[in-house]
Amino acid sequence: MKIGIVDYKLGNLGSVYSALKFYKYDVDLISDSKRLKHADVIILAGVGNFKTAVSRLKNTGFWDSINEEVIGRKKPILGICLGMQLFADTSSEDKTNRGFGWIKGDVVRIDSSISKVPHMGWNNIIPHKDGMFRGMTANAFYFMHSYHLIPSDKNTIAATVKYGGIELVSAVRKNNIVGVQFHPEKSQGDGLRFFRNFLESVV
Amino acid sequence: MIAHRVMPFFLLKGKRLVKGTNFKGHIDVGDPLSQAMIYDAQGADEIVVVDISASLESRLIDTKVINDMISRCRLPITVGGGVKSLRDAHKCFKAGADKILINTNAILRPSFIKELAREFGSQSVVVSMDVRKNRAGCHEVYLYSGTVKAKEPLIDLVKKAIDNGAGELVITSIDMEGTLKGYDIDLYKKLRNLIRVPAIASGGAGCYDDVVKLFKDTDFDACAIGKMFFLRDYDVVKVKSYLNGKHVMVRET
After folding, report:
1. Closest CA to B62 of B72, B71, B52
2. Which helix (H) or strand (E) holds B99?
3. Cα–Cα distance between A1 and B179 in angstroms, integer?
4. How far separated are the first and last CA of chain B, in Å rounded?
5. What number of C-beta contacts closer than 8 Å exist between A and B?
6. What's the predicted TM-score (pTM) here?
7. Mean pLDDT over residues B51-80, rounded?
């Protein structure tokens, strides 16, 4: 199994790479969109803002190749943080561009009248139905985000997280498409375990 | 619920870890990579690494040191020291930083905070301020590792940093730093409700109860710990289990 991390020059992909290397997976950073077809599993990470991410994916040709691999060829994809948010229809962070639209829903800013924004630090997630979270020590993962995805189809929610009186979606899943709002690559033991669970669940 | 964070605070001078008292008299306390691996294994929630001589020497923190840490550790790392342009920030992120910390350049040029937040998102931009209490008991901000006094009052600078898009603040008490006599609780109480982003207290932690007091008496989200870890017989596991016993919510590891 070849794992391809989409390298569209946005944020910190080295940690994702080294976390996957920990389990000796065959993993590559892919910077040429034409080479994405060689990957069996795709990882889309990234930090920053929605607009920059969409335009960079489009400029590098990744937008179309990701769509082709994930929708056309049904390859598994894991979106991390902003990567997951890109699966949505729209984001209030960007009025012009739309997301991939695979997970129906919108990305909006966390209500700062209720809690401190960004949602930063370690928080315990609440798994809804998915086996991706089995065998964890505490189900505690590292979050750092100001925006969150609200799926319109509640069946796509795989986990939530409580933050200052509100419940945010922390993972989504729809067939071959998986997204997490937290950073497994930064979440020590449970994070590594999540990567393994995800990969075992898709192959 | 979100856990209070326990964060070893790494001060670098070039490639070595150092520690002083009141921002002076730094001695070598080890190798950043091996120390980072130890704290990662102990379940530290995050590590902050700042090169304290970078701004003074007009250079950027050594990104090779950061890259080594990132490749061996599975926890978030905030990186600072001499970051004065988007290009510098890109270099740090490329090396593996999760967040960029700016201090002197955030005060000199608040618009830089905005530039960073626009490019990388607020969640990746940490503004750090070093604070000293004057004779009148008033807290004042200092730049260039405590050597130059800022013109504006602390509260204005804090508001300005948040308005410009800082996603997290580190407030260090120069008076308490390295003294092991406890955090400057008055300082953090003064900032209560003013900080609408996560905030990290730094300077003075010397025993378990200092950390408990910080979390009980202020609304700060994280404690930075330096000398207490590097030069005393404490570790992350012990601190967390003590906090847990005092009903301060921390992450189990």
Report:
1. B52
2. strand B99-102
3. 53
4. 16
5. 122
6. 0.96
7. 95
